[in-house]
Amino acid sequence: MKRGLNQYTIKSFDNSIKDISLGKREVAMYLSKFDTIDSDNDMIVKGAFEKSIRERGPGSDSNRNIAFLRYHDWQHQIGKFLTLEEDNNGLFAVAKLSTSTKGEDALRDYEEGIIKEHSIGFQYMTDSVKWIEENGKGYYRIDEVKLFEGSAVTFGANEFTEVLSVGKSEDKENALEKLTKEINVVTKALINGRGTDERMYNLEMKLKYLNSRLVDLATVNFATPKAEATKQINNEQGFNWDELNKLLNSKF
User: Fold this and answer.
1) Where are the domains of the chain?
2) What is the pTM (predicted TM-score) of this model?
């Protein structure tokens, strides 16, 4: 069975920028490519994003539209999608950058070539992942995903996944500690429940993402006192991760 089916998953796509209009503050891009086996042994096919676009894309009636972020950070929205559509190549998008400080920074980074790639944050749909075997080899055919957001990224990676390739236990321990602290902060904010519905939604999505990264780190082939400490902290708080995942999956 494929790992990560219930997690917030990210995939990057390099050379994804198609056009930039500085005057209009608009960027045309591909967020995903169809019919190509990627490093996760996945092949996303046309139609995989159709339901998400219909239910939460630009022009939908949803107040939980697919977000345009930086680094998959739900407190770092840099604009909004004007267009999200599937063509024969992949998931095509046009986004308009906001006039906020974060939007201005992103516009300059596009202009100067600092932002070169884009990435999607999504969840696999269990019934839409099929193992296809051909000539003694195989891949996962992805017929549908639940798309949460598209992100502008610098290197197609995030600060927590990079550490997985380093191989130094102290770096992994530091990442676990950092993740645990951030999860605790977001959890307390959610429990307090102050702010708008939009803030609560963003916090819930951020917690979903952080929890997924924690699982990624925890399942790497290593065992350290910090890993056990992380488990102990969560146990002491009495925070039920299974119930949280059920809540998030049912709401979004």
Assistant:
1) 9-153, 162-251
2) 0.74
